[in-house]
Amino acid sequence: MPQIRFFAERCKGCGLCVLVCPQRIIAMSEELNELGNPFAGLTEPARCTYCATCGRMCPDLAIEIEDDSPSADNSTSSE
Amino acid sequence: MEFHRPRTLKNVLTHYCPGCGHGIVHRLVAEAIDELGIRERTIGTAPVGCAVLFYNYFDCDIIECAHGRPPAVATGMKRMLPDRIIFTYQGDGDLAAIGTTETIHAANRGENITVIFVNNAIYGMTGGQMAPTTIKGQWSTTTPEGRGKHGEGGPIRICEMLSALDGPSYLERVAVSSPKDILRAKKAVKKAFEKQIAGKGFSLVEVLSMCPTDWKLTPAQAVDFVNEKMKAVFPLGVFRDR
Amino acid sequence: MAEKVLFKGNELLVEAAIEAGCRFYAGYPITPQNEVPERMSWRMPQAGGVFIQAESEIAAINMIFGASAAGARCMTSSSSPGISLKQEGISYIAAAELPCVIVNMQRGGPGLGNIRAAQGDYFQAVKGGGHGDYRLIVLTPATLQELYDLTLNAFDYADYYRNPVMILGDGILGQMAEPAEKHPYHPILDLPPKDYILDGCKGRNSRVVRTLFLHPADGLMKHNLHLQEKYARIQRELSLVEQYQTDDAEVIIAAYGISGRAAKGAVKAARREGIKAGLIRPLCVWPFPSDVYRRAAERAKSFLVVEMSHGQFVEDVKLAIECRRPVAFLGKGGGWYPSQEEIVEQIRRLANEKSKPSTARGKR
Questions:
Q1: ipTM
Q2: Alpha-carbon radius of gyration of chain B
Q3: Contacts of B23 in chain A (CB under 8 A)
Q4: At what angle do helices B179-197 and B22-36 cross, to 10 degrees?
């Protein structure tokens, strides 16, 4: 199963992901992250199709999708 | 479906404002570099403007240039290192105002470099002054009555202007204001690098991008501004492909 | 083996640069240095290098910025108004500590001026020109042999110190022809590896060449201290000066570059009249050979500064001797020059003055 991850600590709260999600299942949090921003998250994770539209629109690399398959993790590790 | 931070981008938070288009364009450039497998032989130039700290985000060799001079600096690098991939990343003030000369002549020489031109119709870093690409009637801190009332002229259309020259191999205007636009922009950026790899000469992608902060709009309104106002003045499309 | 050649200065400069391994040249035509880009346009391709006629002086210096960051030995040349345009780029190159050679075949100024030889860009070359605290190494040849030799050395100084080097010539030096020995290039310094260049990060961490230091807040202050330490080291290590008939000289002429030639002729003429005149002629005006002038001030009675401007170099001479002796000045600007006879007249006047014992002390 793929997994979508929203990195709250990277989110600047611009809400562009909310705007473009075809399933309309992203919303901004009530609370604030360490940067002082509301952050994006899924309201109905089960309905996510992992299309990555939100990730493409996100200017801050705050959304990633991972796959279960063993060959998956090749680009997330930092230096 | 896998979706990750591109290898060419460092795992750091950018200084860009919420909803700024630079982060999206950074990703597209980095993805193109990754997909073409050229990170270790790519040298980028950092501009003066909001993307001045570009070198903090890209994990490839970077040279930071004086305002407007990246095409000249890139020319010096490319001529000495013809097998390396040299790209500039420039804003509208950098490329279309103070560096117009360098832009036109690098294009005219058919210099085999790739130019990523981020057009957000405003001077972001200095706080929202008029850009050469500010559209007619647009408010800025130096056009308080809207551009065009006091002899400021109109927006410069770089792709149209450069398409009058023989030198460029590839000119395309794209946007990053919708998922569909971003997909098209991604193809354009990659193609621009491919032109350089193939030795075709000067390639430039103009990217219409959002600046919510200096436009005094919300990120959602900024997207609408690009889609409704900017695209009307700066038509998207391929202006040169050979 | 050295080959004796007869070239114009501008042409010889090109030959010297190519001999020294310069493989990138970008420039923009301006009189009186047009022979440089013209000759470069065919000599560079012959040598396997790159010639670019840039769209402007600004573009040319920025092409040099890029070529130097890519590891090339590189050069640009111009004349006074064009050098003014290059100042932005020179400041960046100095800040980024990139080596390059910049040639100024000076002409009359200010403004568009004229196309005659002048020395009015001394301040610009030696005191800054661009923004910020930086220094250029400034070489001042007076003969075509010196032009050839100093051009070879200029590339070594640039690489050794990672600093831009300016050859400060003038229209006469560029346009005149005289024989010179075109000897082969051998490095005069133990050149460090270029471990800062950008050529793609294969097998290493990515690198940045930059001149912006925003964070931490004292980052730029520290970078400036680093630069100042380097400049202090250059000042300790580099001194190029000709001392002619100075051992017993009572009147010391201070002149550099092409005025140094007329000054030398004047010293010879004065000596024929029995006047103990001598010449201290820097071949490098930054670093300035202050100690040589200071030592000379211990025995000489007076100094005469001769230059083709209305008084720029003279300030460094005064600073060097710290007001120990009176300093007379003979300068002409606007593309004109003090003649040998005018210099001799001044030497005579100073020689006579010094027989009146009060003068030197009175001006202390």
A1: 0.97
A2: 17
A3: 58-61
A4: 40
